[in-house]
Automatic annotation (TrEMBL):
Residues 76-111 form the EF-hand domain. It comes from the Eukaryota. The lineage of its organism: Eukaryota, Sar, Alveolata, Dinophyceae, Suessiales. The keyword DNA-binding does not apply. This is EF-hand domain-containing protein. InterPro entries: EF-hand-dom_pair, EF_Hand_1_Ca_BS, EF_hand_dom. Residues 1-20 form the signal peptide. GO terms for molecular function: calcium ion binding. The keyword tRNA processing does not apply.
Length: 119
């Protein structure tokens, strides 16, 4: 009896394997990663460079403490994020939808390609 069960199991398994669908992606492309555009240059130094020492030195003691530095950096980054949001949220509804995101990614991609060709 156990031989019949084993034979039936093996037969069912072999039939299942023989009728399985091929993978959606060709095997030779399993490990290929699509090219991703490099982000534009961005750094805290670039954001802080327009600020004068007085802008960073909140308590006017001619020195910049960690607290003052962090406060200035947060302020500048928040302003940059607000400007970026205005350009991302093109319809001004305070939400980023798929169309807006696709537009920004597409623009970023084409600008990145242009920079690569020039450089």
């Amino acid at each position: 009896m156990w031989r019949r069960c084993l034979a039936a199991t093996l037969l069912a398994t072999s039939l299942e394997v023989s009728v399985s669908l091929p993978p959606r992606q060709p095997k030779d492309t399993y490990l290929q990663v699509p090219e991703v555009p490099e982000p534009s240059d961005f750094g805290l130094a670039e954001l802080l460079s327009p600020l004068a020492l007085q802008d960073l030195d909140a308590n006017s003691d001619s020195a910049i403490s960690e607290t003052e530095f962090v406060a200035a950096a947060e302020s500048v980054v928040r302003e940059a994020a607000a400007r970026a949001w205005k350009s991302l949220d093109s319809n001004g509804n305070q939400w980023l939808d798929l169309e807006e995101l696709a537009t920004v990614v597409r623009k970023s991609w084409t600008e990145g390609e242009g920079k690569k060709k020039k450089g």
